[in-house]
Design goal:
Layout (H helix, E strand, L loop, with lengths): L13 H4 L21 H11 L2 H13 L12 H11 L2 E2 L4 E6 L1 H5 L7 E11 L5 E9 L2 E9 L2 H11 L4 E5 L4 E6 L2 E4 L2 H7 L4 E2 H12 L7 H4 L42 E2 L9
Parallel strand pairs: 2-6, 5-10
Antiparallel strand pairs: 1-3, 2-3, 3-4, 4-5, 6-7, 7-8, 8-9
Helix pairs in contact: 3-4
Length: 279
């Protein structure tokens, strides 16, 4: 897996999107994996991706090959429209929940899960082999598409976790790292994760200590946060939309990814994956 494809384009935590999270536990109880998203919820999320409006957006995304609307294409509008129609986007594989490192776990909250549901992802392919990940979040009782990102990391790492022994795949976006929680250990799924926890992984307790050292001073309410540094590092072109209309999602940063945030804006965001690092 190449590092540029392993980065999530934005940060949405479960408190902002209404997905289920693990209940609080007593101080004596060890941290657990996140509560699963139900099959019924995943089916509803998938249904949102199949709407004609979203499929139209996907066709244009594939036709432009991720080039933002602010930049000129080498083809005209008519040719772009034909390419969008010819792309014939179709869903493939399962819609999966995407889990992200939880601020409560970093803070050492008793019983906090290592990660929490952030959004769901559906893999979509075009006739010429392009792949996109469509992100959906729950607002009230309905699921809504909020982002289209190039590549299919979310589904790929969930499948990798399932095929290598099961467990819950989750991401630490500040390091561009994907892990799987299995039998009380945090194991690596990509090179960034191997650089973090080694080839054989670490215990959940050791991982908590690791992320507390990395981000404990950047949690909401910290001096870092109060100083207005929550925006962290924002690389050139981060958050630049790759399609027309809609608000973009916030770029992944050390503080933003560990804060409880709601979805920014009401429009569908079309964007490519971009590299980020800790702020």
């Amino acid at each position: 897996m190449t590092s540029i494809r392993n980065v999530a384009a934005g940060v949405l935590l479960a408190a902002g999107i209404g997905l289920a999270v693990a209940p609080a536990a007593s101080a004596a109880e060890p941290a657990q994996g996140p509560a699963p998203v139900s099959a019924a919820e995943l089916a509803q999320a998938r249904s949102a991706v199949q709407s004609p409006a979203v499929l139209d957006q996907l066709g244009r995304f594939f036709a432009r090959k991720g080039v933002p609307p602010t930049k000129q294409l080498t083809i005209g509008a008519a040719e772009e429209a034909r390419a969008a129609s010819a792309a014939a986007p179709r869903l493939t594989g399962e819609t999966v929940p995407v889990y992200t490192l939880d601020a409560a776990f970093v803070a050492g909250t008793p019983g906090a899960a290592v990660a929490r549901a952030e959004f769901t992802a559906s893999r979509v392919v075009s006739t010429d082999g392009q792949v996109a990940s469509v992100w959906t979040v729950k607002e009230g009782s309905a699921w809504r598409v909020v982002n289209i990102a190039s590549g299919g990391d979310e589904n790929d790492y969930a499948a990798q976790a399932a095929s290598t022994g099961g467990g819950t795949a989750f991401r630490e976006p500040q390091l561009n790292a994907w892990y799987v929680l299995r039998d009380g250990r945090v194991l690596p799924l990509d090179d960034e994760a191997r650089g973090s926890v080694g080839d054989s992984g670490v215990t959940l307790a050791a991982y908590r200590q690791l992320v507390r050292e990395r981000y404990g001073d950047k949690l909401p309410g910290s001096a870092y946060d109060r100083a207005g540094k929550g925006g962290g590092y924002r690389p050139d072109a981060a958050g630049e939309p790759a399609g027309s209309g809609g608000s973009v999602l916030p770029a992944a940063t050390a503080t933003a990814a560990l804060s409880v945030t709601a979805v920014a804006g009401a429009g569908l965001a079309l964007r490519r994956r971009v590299g980020v690092r800790r702020g």
